[in-house]
From TrEMBL:
It catalyses: adenylyl-molybdopterin + molybdate = Mo-molybdopterin + AMP + H(+). SMART domains: MoCF_biosynth (SM00852). This is Molybdopterin molybdenumtransferase. Belongs to the MoeA family. It is an enzyme of class 2 (transferase). The gene is glp. Pfam families: MoCF_biosynth, MoeA_C, MoeA_N. Pathway: Cofactor biosynthesis; molybdopterin biosynthesis. CDD domains: MoeA. Its EC number is 2.10.1.1. The keyword Nucleus does not apply. The lineage of its organism: Bacteria, Pseudomonadati, Pseudomonadota, Alphaproteobacteria, Hyphomicrobiales. Residues 177-317 form the MoaB/Mog domain.
């Protein structure tokens, strides 16, 4: 079987994928969710010309020459605007965030003013329109401020709230079922100490990746290498309770790799591919109706890397995320590397920031795909394209930083 490129596999997995639905959530709960529709402002901000400083609201023409003496006729504070009009030779005491009164076009900061009773004298020139936030300089009513497909940050929900939205339309979270097979696997703390046992770890890492990508995750547990037992759990996973079923292990075609036969027996239109990436090569993908199935390798590091490369973008695409990723950022090599072969390589690496601000990637000494200690110690995946030439210290490279 010819190796499929990473790009071809990604296109296959995300083909025809769109957001699952829309729900309104309170704005304070919207961080990390994907905006489902463009969000327009419900008001203009600021709603009037506002002072950006504490000082005095004046007419710019009156202070073109300094010193200038002006009569103080009132006060404007945030939430308590001055009701009159500033005329020639007049000033209004004003505070940050207060409405600039009619007639005034400039705010002289209080440090540039001396005051005696109700008379002020300006001590430094102030240009017209200084220290004034003009009406609508931030955003205007009915103008879009946030756009569909954006994963909302804390800064975004501040903007949504300021635009007067108590609720925000976001994509429904994908419902993901995780299952893992293997006679050798035991849960943490539940082993007998037998050398043939392996403590399960994949599901914990995949669950965290899925949750960080925006999914609701249900772990359906460990399943022994028994076709009937696997089919029973698969049947539940495909019942409509979930949007995506993710398995770890059994993605190859050996005598004990029963996940593919179980999925096919339950009506999943399934294909198995060998992907040109390292670590991780076997990959299953299919669907039954609207439920998608993704089968990842059982090797712990391979499972996690494939989760970053395939599972996370799929979950994001199911929310209509305009940037499903995985996104790389530039760095420089901190060690020489030999030429690469046909597979796209995702090497574990640590990062070092130099005094000049540049980021340098240091490949971990071992790239063994079973060593979770190396994965845990790494800061990123160093991505090497197929057939990349030998790399030298200082050469540009691309990395995928770990988000956790």
């Amino acid at each position: 079987m010819a190796l499929m490129t990473v790009e071809e596999a990604t296109a296959l997995i995300t083909s025809g994928v769109s957001a699952l639905g829309v729900e309104d959530v309170p704005v304070q709960a919207a961080a990390g969710r994907v905006l489902a529709r463009d969000l327009a402002a419900r008001r203009t901000q600021p709603p009037a010309d506002m002072s950006a400083m504490d000082g005095y609201a004046v007419r710019g023409a009156d202070i073109a020459q300094t010193p200038a003496r002006l009569a103080v006729i009132g006060e404007s504070a945030a939430g308590r605007p001055f009701a009159g009009t500033v005329g020639a030779g007049q000033a209004v005491r004003i505070f940050t965030g207060a409405v600039v009164p009619e007639g005034a076009d400039t705010v002289v900061i209080q440090e540039n003013v001396s005051r005696e009773g109700d008379t002020i004298t300006t001590t430094a020139p102030t240009a017209a329109l200084r220290n004034v936030r003009k009406r609508g300089c931030d955003f205007s009513a009915d103008a879009p401020g946030l756009f569909a497909g954006r994963r909302l940050t804390g800064r975004d929900i501040m903007l949504a709230a300021a635009m007067d939205h108590a609720t925000v339309p976001v994509a429904r979270r994908p419902r993901v079922a995780l299952l893992q097979t293997g006679d050798e696997l035991v849960l943490p703390g539940q082993g007998t100490g037998n050398d043939s046992e392996i403590v399960v770890s994949n599901a914990f890492g995949l669950a965290e990746l899925a949750r960080r990508a925006g999914a609701d995750v249900t772990d359906l547990g460990l399943i022994k290498d028994d076709l009937a037992a696997i089919r029973a759990v698969v049947a539940r996973a495909l019942s409509g309770e979930f949007d995506l079923v993710v398995s770890s292990g059994g993605a190859s075609v050996g005598d004990h790799d029963l996940m593919a036969p179980a999925l096919k027996a339950e009506g999943v239109d399934l294909s198995v591919h060998k992907i040109a990436l390292r670590p991780g090569k076997p990959l299953m993908f299919g669907h039954r109706g609207t439920v998608r199935v993704l089968g990842l390798p059982g090797n712990p590091v391979s499972s996690h890397v494939c989760g970053m490369v395939y599972l996370v973008p799929l979950i994001r695409a199911l929310q209509g995320d305009s940037r499903p990723g995985p996104e790389t950022v530039p760095a420089r090599l901190a060690a020489d590397l030999p030429p690469n072969d046909v597979r796209r390589d995702f090497m574990r690496a640590t990062l070092e920031r130099r005094a000049d601000g540049s980021i340098h990637a240091i490949p971990c000494t071992s790239q063994d795909s079973a060593m979770l200690s190396i994965l845990s110690a790494a800061d990123c995946l160093l991505v090497r394209p197929p057939f990349a030439p030998a790399g030298r210290v200082g050469d540009p490279c691309e990395i995928i930083p770990f988000a956790d």
